[in-house]
Amino acid sequence: MSAIKSIRLSELTAIINATIQYAFEGSIFWVVADVTSHSYKAQDDRHFFVLAEKGEGTNSLTAKIDAVAWKPAAAKIRNFETVTGQKFQSGIHVLVAVSVTYNGAYGLKLNMHDIDINFTIGALENEKQKILQRLENECADFIQKDGDRYITRNNQLQLNLVIQKIAIVASSGTAGHEDFMHTLQDNPYGYSFFADNYFTPVQGENNSHLIKQMLIDIFKSGKPYDAVVIIRGGGAQTDFLIFETFELGQVVAKFPIPIITGIGHQRNETIVDIMAHSPTFTPTKAAEFIIAHNRYFEEGVADLHNTIIYRAQQQFQSRRQQLEPVIQTIKNYSRLLLQKQKGQIAHFESVFAIMSPDNILKMGFAVLKHKGKIISNADNVLIDDEIKLTLSGVEITATVTSKNESDGSEFKL
């Protein structure tokens, strides 16, 4: 019986290692996979995890392999988390650069060198586009797309001329809420606002239903709000996934009160921004938008006031020019009329002077008084009655001794 030729295990692993080194040495592969079984050793700044791939549309594994990210790669992971806001943890879908390594004691592993940030952001954008397409398809009665713009029931509402009564959806005690209130209340024009807070978490994708409930509560309150403001402070892109859901986009699009967003992002619009009436980038910008809207109304009123004054002055000047000839005519007519009236007055003065009792008495006439009264006929004068005759400069008392009829012919001209 011949002896079986054998080798030690270490010899075999050495052959495997040499073979792998020969095949993969210096090669880096960009691999798309899911992260599972993740753990982090802070003292060594190392990540241990498994990269896995599942069959399309199933949960069955088609491939998996252990992987490790040493200190240089751990720094790349920290940058990934900062930019995307996505925690590097089990369950995320990534594009990573890896090399193949083999160790006789620890087996086959992938050594991570880099992670593609844009791949993760792109995946989020693809998911967002799918949700927007679903909103367009399933909510066609209040969401339509016109070119690159979405027309919604909410963004077609007319803002009131003045925004004063506001419902605020925000997290309690956050810097974003404080910035909004500070800007609103310390506005340079002295505008007053009435704001009701509807506090709720505004982060965490699974909390979008809480914001939806706040909007429902605002509607059911029956209060005549001029606008609803949804605000959140800054953060990484994945911090805003709460505003990228179908259910929240749907309720914002058909909400009957204009919604102003002040979500602290600087690059992309969220689905809530797209569906809302007036999107702004930050809580401060949302407050400034409201102040500017009210200022526009005030300036419009002031302009109208000035226009009315200007037009009135124009009308006054025009009418004054039209009346100038009439005024000249009235002045000339008045002067002539006054002169004529003065002549007439002088004539009457002469007549009055001639007809004055004093002049009449001087012409030989007398005033006859009977029983203290001036009389013009002698019907009541009897014989022996006492009468008084007033002549120019003298009064004579006489007794009637006779009374005879006279036809007055001697005084006729």
Which CATH architecture of the largest domain is right? Answer: 3-Layer(aba) Sandwich
Shape assignment? rod-shaped
CATH class of the largest domain, named: Alpha Beta
Instruction: Show unreliable segments.
Output: none
The helix/strand series, from N terminus to C terminus, equals: HEEEHEEHEEEHEHEHEHEHHEEEE
Summarize the structure.
With 413 residues, the protein is an alpha/beta fold. It is 41% helix and 26% strand.
Task: Please describe what this structure looks like.
- The protein contains 9 helices and 16 strands.
- The protein has 413 residues and is an alpha/beta fold.
- It folds into 3 domains: 9-115, OB fold (Dihydrolipoamide Acetyltransferase, E2P), CATH 2.40.50; 124-296, Response regulator (Rossmann fold), CATH 3.40.50.2300; 358-411, no CATH class.
- The strands form 4 sheets. Strands 1-2-3-5-4 form a 5-stranded mixed β-barrel. The chain has a 5-stranded parallel sheet with strand order 9-8-10-11-12, sandwiched between helices. The protein has a 4-stranded antiparallel sheet with strand order 14-13-15-16, with no helix packed on it.
- The radius of gyration is 55 Å and the shape is rod-shaped.
- The mean pLDDT is 87.
